[in-house]
Predict the 3D structure of the following.
Amino acid sequence: MWDLLPRSVCLAAEGGLRPLCRLALAAAFVVCLPATAAPPRHVVKDPYYGDSLFYFFQQRYFTSITDLMTSQHFGRLPHHAEEAELLRGGLYLSYGMHREAGEIFARLIEKSATPQVRDRAWYYLAKIRYQRDLPGQAEEALGHVGGNLPPELEEDRALLQANLLMARGAYAEAAKALQGLAGNPRAATYVRYNLGVALIKSGDAEKGTALLDQIGQAPAEGEEMLSLRDKANVALGLTALQNNSPERARTYLERVRLSGMLANKALLGFGWAAAALKQPKDALVPWTELAKRGTSDAAVLEAKLAVPYAMGELGAYAQSLELYNDAIGVFERERVSLDESIGAIRSGKLLDGLLERNPGEEEMGWFLDIDRLPPLPHAEHLAPVLARHDFQEAFKNYRDLLLLSKNLQQWEEKLGIYGDMLTTRRQAFAERVPQVRGRASAAGLDALERRRDDLTRELTWAEAHSNVYAFTDPEEQKLAQRLERAHALLDLLGDAPQLQTERERYRRAAGALTWRLTQEYPERLWEAKKRIRELDVELGEARERDTALAQAQREEPAHFEQFAARIAQLDWRIRSLRPQVAELMRDQQHYIQELAVAELEHQKEQLATFATQARFAVARIYDRANVGKAPDVQPGEPARGP
């Protein structure tokens, strides 16, 4: 009755529930953020780190962590080494791998983090471990937290510590831890609720009851706070019943909403309070209403016994007998339905149905919540077990294994593609490299280099002698040759006076050519040197490519063999991992199915108990009828309490 709130509620802080993925996000970046409210501008210097962050903020955690670990393996994150490790720790947390994350936190946070950052990191780790139902390890992590948490987290830390203490039965210590916070008028309702539970469990029932009574009467907004108020009132009412205070029990139970999750327990308890006050007619009102509801709830099944019990108290033995027989029929039908549900679960339909109705995001992993029942016969029987923390965690683990199996299958297919690519590349290399080298040999790199050397020497001689005619183009060379022939002809004809005009024309033409070549000499000399330099670069590149090709021709086959060996190694590793993952999936499937079956078997045991009580009641009514006596003691009173 005085059970703790679900972890998703107990861990709420700052006035409301938080999705658990925020914890991993905070833990992943806890070193990057100061204790102040405004985070600094953070510059990503390594592109590969930014790539991992991109996938992280897309909530593609599996891609993010594989990308990050690959970058770490190849040393691609020199500027963000520690941040990358903490991000990896946060991603481990996103898949519930708290031990690996704890090792990273212990190694890095203690090494370089400030006290404020260290405390927040251990606090988030403790919270995750508690969510994973590991109270001992959560306490160990919480023990590392000093006094440097920000005020908005300090209340949540105390609440977490109190829940851990109550989980191991240290209620007095839990009450002491919560009392300081409860004195704050702005303290969260969860703090006061858990303090009330701790006080009652530690023996101070008066103070605990008063505190829970305040919660039970306080105005509430939203389904979360309304449900918490109902829980407080139901707990108070059932405790009052156990303490033989039915009037107080009715006061508490009247506050519970008829449409809330705890309405069935409240109706059942309210009826027992009226019965304890010897008011069976008043008890019939809530019990009759409860008996009309779905029979998947144990409180409704008990109401099937409580209604004929009240009829007997009123002296309506015939109606009581009829209702007991009806109840036996209901119990038998429920037993058959439970057997059908158990058969469907063991045939594998449970997980298939859950995955179909709750697909979630592809890489969300641990953060998936189950909010839809599978399409099974009598699926309403599964609602209690699906709401259990251990079942939720087991199903998330199964989904992670399923995701891992799909990834291994995809990588096995990709390795086949890589093998084909390697074969194609090896064949193309073997065919094309000799052809390329053959063309290089045909071009005669050695001859080209000798020709370059000759041109360099000619250029050096022309520059040294300022030979303007060394840089003439074909047209200018033709013109110079004509002038040379004209000069030779004039020399052959001698100094005849009638040739004076031709000699003058020759002089002017030769002078004009020489003058133009002289004017353009610096530019042409610079252009020639530039082209020699370009020729040097191109010949050097050609020589380097030829050398690289020769080296590749010698070494690349070995690289191909290394790639082939790496592909074969990865293929073997994947092929060896797939059976292991498949076996783990089968084990996890069996574990999940047995969790569900165990819950349904427990429901069957309850049904058997109720059916036995109903049959004893029917038998007693018949026995007393046979001796002609009305029963002086009401037969078959059902066990009280939900």
